[in-house]
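Weekly sync, protein design subgroup
Attendees: M.S., D.O., the rotation student, P.L. (late)

Item 1: inverse folding check
M.S. brought a backbone from last month's batch and wanted to see whether the design step gives back something sensible before we order anything. D.O. pointed out we never logged the input encoding, so this time it goes straight into the notes. Structure tokens as presented (171 positions):
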């Protein structure tokens, strides 16, 4: 009988640990029928901001995981400059979120997986890497990439199946 693979638990404080926390938030979004993206902001080893997508639930195109995490972290710190903070996000940020990351002075941005359709941190464009801007966070790609890709693929596979079944029932 083959041995079952024991999932590795990321070491607390490691990039994988914080990305795993962002994945937990992405799962919450998926449970609500939202695109499963999660983000956390960390300062001095402590999570000070958390967010997951809720655009459908809130009927608001700006409530992306990154935006919610930035708002929470800014409230926690009492100011909009998130100096010394790192963000961990399961999916490459869009243009809106990439701009907010630059404006809020996030120090390092850890990205789980790239978004070839809307990503603005290296895929379609690279807003945080634009040297014309007054701040460029360090970009780190591929943290828990397999897990971040899997949650998105599973979500969209299920969504396609539901839509297919809905079309059948209408006919």
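Designed sequence read out in the meeting:
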């Amino acid at each position: 009988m083959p041995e079952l693979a024991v999932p590795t638990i990321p070491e607390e404080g490691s990039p994988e640990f914080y990305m795993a926390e962002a994945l937990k938030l992405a799962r919450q979004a998926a449970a609500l029928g939202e695109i499963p993206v999660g983000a956390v902001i960390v300062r001095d080893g402590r999570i000070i901001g958390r967010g997951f997508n809720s655009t459908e639930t809130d009927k608001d195109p700006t409530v992306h995981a990154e935006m919610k995490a930035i708002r929470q972290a800014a409230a926690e710190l009492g100011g909009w400059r998130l100096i010394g903070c790192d963000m961990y996000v399961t999916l490459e940020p869009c243009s809106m979120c990439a701009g907010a990351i630059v404006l809020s002075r996030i120090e390092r941005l850890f990205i789980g997986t790239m978004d070839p359709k809307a990503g603005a941190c290296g895929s379609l464009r690279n807003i945080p890497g634009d040297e014309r801007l007054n701040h460029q966070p360090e970009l780190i790609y591929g943290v828990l990439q397999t897990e971040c890709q899997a949650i998105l693929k599973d979500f969209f596979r299920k969504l396609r199946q539901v839509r297919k079944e809905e079309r059948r029932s209408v006919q």
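Discussion: The longest strand covers residues 46-52. The CA atoms of residues 6 and 54 lie 32 Å apart.
Action: P.L. to compare against the previous round before Friday.
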